[in-house]
């Protein structure tokens, strides 16, 4: 892969280079390769400066950079950015409230977003963290087939955290 800081034309300071073309490769002097590039109205680009002798190629460098930027923009356009949505529960949450939050989580998972489910324990609730595990399991049961548990429920300080990911298609 050629980087943007590659040595070009007169910037190549080596005496001899390996010139790679469609016909094959040959070792010639830098001056001769530069003359060939000027004759073709193109650039002499150093591809691999670490090789012995360095590898160069004759190409239209600006056109190459343009095509590389187009490829990168296309790749960036095709990638999906996954957001992490958070849903907060409590150990004393009612059934209807769990239904509402589970429906929101299903909607997030259908949009290919991850869901972080958090339960905060306060005061005396810290003594009964098993209630939190039951609430988390009930929440997962209500989500059903919409998502899978990526990171199971784990107690971290006063919070219990679980991460769910969308189900693979």
Automatic annotation (TrEMBL):
It is found in: Cytoplasm. Its main location: cytoplasm. Coiled coil: none annotated. Residues 9-75 form the Translation initiation factor 3 N-terminal domain. GO terms for molecular function: translation initiation factor activity. Keywords: Cytoplasm, Initiation factor, Protein biosynthesis. Transmembrane segments: none annotated. IF-3 binds to the 30S ribosomal subunit and shifts the equilibrium between 70S ribosomes and their 50S and 30S subunits in favor of the free subunits, thus enhancing the availability of 30S subunits on which protein synthesis initiation begins. Belongs to the IF-3 family. PANTHER family: TRANSLATION INITIATION FACTOR IF-3, TRANSLATION INITIATION FACTOR IF-3, MITOCHONDRIAL. Monomer. This is Translation initiation factor IF-3. It comes from Clostridium rhizosphaerae.
């Amino acid at each position: 892969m050629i980087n943007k800081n590659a040595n070009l034309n007169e910037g190549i300071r080596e005496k001899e280079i390996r010139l790679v073309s469609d016909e094959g490769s040959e070792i010639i002097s830098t001056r001769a390769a530069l003359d060939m590039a000027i004759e073709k109205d193109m650039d002499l680009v150093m591809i691999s400066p670490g090789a012995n002798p360095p590898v160069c190629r004759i190409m239209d460098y600006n056109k190459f950079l343009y095509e590389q930027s187009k490829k990168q923009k296309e790749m960036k356009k095709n990638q999906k950015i996954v957001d992490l949505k958070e849903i907060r529960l409590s150990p004393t949450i009612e059934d209807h409230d769990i239904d509402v939050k589970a429906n929101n989580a299903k909607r997030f998972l259908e949009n290919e977003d991850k869901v972080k489910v958090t339960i905060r324990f306060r005061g005396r609730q810290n003594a009964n963290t098993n209630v939190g595990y039951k609430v988390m399991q009930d929440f997962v049961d209500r989500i059903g087939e919409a998502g899978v548990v990526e990171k199971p429920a784990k107690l971290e300080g006063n919070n219990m955290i679980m991460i769910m990911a969308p189900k693979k298609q």
